[in-house]
Description:
about 625 residues; alpha/beta; Rossmann fold; 5 domains; 8-stranded mixed sheet; 5-stranded mixed sheet; 32 strands
Amino acid sequence: xxFANPFGLALLASVAVLVSLYLRQRRRRELIVPSxxxxxxxxxxxxxxxRFQPDWLFxxxxxxxxxxTGGLAQPLWPRPGGAPLPRDWIFVLDVTASTAARDGAxxxxxxxxxxxxxxxxxxxxxxxxxxxxxxxxxxxxxxxxRDRSAAVAAIRGLSPADTGGDLAQAMRLARDLNPVAxxxxxxxxxxxxxxRQWPERVRPFVAGERDDNLGIAGLEVSQGRFxxxxxxxxxxxxxxxSDREQHGWLSLDVEGEMILRRGFTVAARASESFxxxxxxxxxxxxxxxxAGDLLAADDVAYAWIAGPTTARVQVVAEPSAFxxxxxxxxxxLGLDVAAADPGAAIAAxxxxxxxxxxxxxxxxxxxxLLLYPEASHLFRVxxxxxxxxxxxxxxxxxxxxxxxxxxxxxxxxxxIIDPPEWADEVLxxxxxxxxxxxxxxxxxxxxxxxxxxxxxRAEGLLANxxxxxxxxxxxxxxxxxxxxQEAVVARAGEVISLxxxxxxxxxxxxxxxxxxxxxxxxxxxxxxxxxxxxxxxxEDLECVPPFPKKAAPEGRGGFxxxxxxxxxxxxxxxxxxxxxxxxxPRLAQLPQESPEPxxxxxxxxxxxxxxxxxxxxxxxxxxxxxxxA
Length: 629
């Protein structure tokens, strides 16, 4: 027998209260006697021994109290031959990258899936089963159901992604789904090590016997926006995540052309760096390891080598030595440059127009850079200042990625311009009266606009001591010019923005292409976008609808855009596989745990006890009335 509410047994303390009331009632009885002579002859011990003499009314009250106490405790009596009670099960399976380590049968995830299947065999026909995948975004794969075959199919349909995850968040999701369910958490040593406290009613299973793993911890191409690949360099860092010395081979290739193959030895928990200079050509750069380690996903990394910039730029300015210097600078950057006098027409193929000391009556259909502009219909010039120093800048703006715009000398001249509503101030200076922007950017219609309020003509653009001015100008040019990179480099699990306004998320590392299909004529939402790794099929791209509705460009086969995606391993922390033996001794024994046997059906006795208490109280009341009569 068991109790559904054992705290109800605390009512047994009321028995002492009943005895106290009974004794107090007897002590207050008044008797009139003719003399106390005989009472004085009694010994005190004899009086105390006769003080508590419960009658049968007291016994009835005691029985009623015990019956009420038993009813509150809700006793359960096993029913002979009864079927097991239905139970609620929630399976949380770790699908992070470390579970793909090949130290299981053949991987850690295979061990987890096998254990989940074995535990499913212990479920009953009336049991409720739910499945949660613990990845970068924990999700309910199977809502609570009594269909065991659906649960088996849901588990078989899972596979590890190349991302990290939060096992504790997945367990919180399970508790929100059903707070009283028995929670089966199947993870590996990497995931279990991140759990600080295991919740109640959790039965974990932890896989992971070895940690032999090498991984590419970093791959970086050092190349300026306008720099030729022959002057660029690449750095690779390889890390040993195990407690033993590891050996391997590192290979680097550009679009299949091998540029490096080198053997190496890395000490336990150490890193090794490799640098290659003078890259042969633009394109996809791939670094790969051959080490025979446990995890394959972190053995490959991608980067992109940019090609030459061939954008068409038109410079609109009065003929001057400064205009000639500006044209020579832009030509050195590899741009297709043309000069024009103020008021000249802008060629339709121009992608960027530079205006020096003037503002056109109407902005052209291209990106625009205004250098030291005069007052115009776009903004008002409040004043001019001398010797303007840079005091602060917006370090989060992409213009300033990798640079600090702090010139060695202040700008000779600058204009205090009241920025328009579309402006995003990125560089500031100050007079004794006010702070003002030295530069601001924005979007006007479909094109970008940047304004530099300082006078580059007065600086001597190509002078040896004005290199900081050239760096600042090229940073703005890089932001204004259309991107030349034909590929997007991202980490697995990141949200990627597509050119047509859609977004996608890829869960597996590799080389992919992604395209968003043209919308149907009868729907505001186009068909789902698709992805495939280059050279093989793939289905690991998730698109987040809806995309903006727009017509498909002619000659594109009905597609809005297609991009080449180079997706790297999502979370370097997943490379440190860990082992069960490294965990807390209490957790090291978790794989030996098994599900609890189903509880047999039990008959509740609560209502019977309440009924018995009611009958006893009625009988006691009738007996008390008869005794008083």
